[in-house]
Recover the amino acids of this structure.
């Protein structure tokens, strides 16, 4: 799948005490260009070809500094969602997100971060969609989100995912992120968990 075709799933949710979410309608898909990292070249060395111009499947993300936590959970030390949204190719997406409610903006930001973190953490794992409510309702606070029952789509499969995401007060940058990637979800369970089949990042009929 091309880096220009990644899809971010927006969940439109009704917020009620104690801030658990109920899905009111099917998610709306928004195209986001997932920006490959640029390889850092030592001073005086030749510049490498930007990853964005390489043939599909050849971009190799640089290792992501992470801190393993208890239970196999990964705590990130670098964050990428803001760079993705700042990319000129994502101007329309950035403008669309700015019109959403604060809760929805936070969900968007954290979903983008989840995909970027996974892409950097595991070479060859290229997510194209995240559903934060697959097996459990996410919990939202003013500038943080916990999604213990999320799912991520990559390579034709849905995987169990849990993540915690903290944002800046203006909801434009990620300030903290930790995650744990689980096993693939059996296809027979996709429908009951609101997980569509995806072809080139788009839901099938």
């Amino acid at each position: 799948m091309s880096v220009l075709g990644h899809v971010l799933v927006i969940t439109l949710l009704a917020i009620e005490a104690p801030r658990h979410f109920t899905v009111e309608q099917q998610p709306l898909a928004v195209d986001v260009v997932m920006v490959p990292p640029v390889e850092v070249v030592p001073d005086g060395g030749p510049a490498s070809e930007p990853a964005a111009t390489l043939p599909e499947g050849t971009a190799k993300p640089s290792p992501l500094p992470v801190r393993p936590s208890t239970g196999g959970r990964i705590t990130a030390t670098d964050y990428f969602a803001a760079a993705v949204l700042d990319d000129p190719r994502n101007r329309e997406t950035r403008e669309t997100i700015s019109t959403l409610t604060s809760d929805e903006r936070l969900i968007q930001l954290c979903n983008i971060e989840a995909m970027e973190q996974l892409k950097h953490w595991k070479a060859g794992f290229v997510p194209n969609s995240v559903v934060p409510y697959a097996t459990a309702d996410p919990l939202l606070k003013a500038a943080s989100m916990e999604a213990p029952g999320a799912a991520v789509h990559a390579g034709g499969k849905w995987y169990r995912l849990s993540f915690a995401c903290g944002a800046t007060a203006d909801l434009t940058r990620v300030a903290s992120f930790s995650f744990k990637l689980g096993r693939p979800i059996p296809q027979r369970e996709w429908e009951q968990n609101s997980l569509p089949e995806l072809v080139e990042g788009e839901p099938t009929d």
Q: What stands out?
A: Residues 72 and 180 are 7 Å apart (CA to CA).
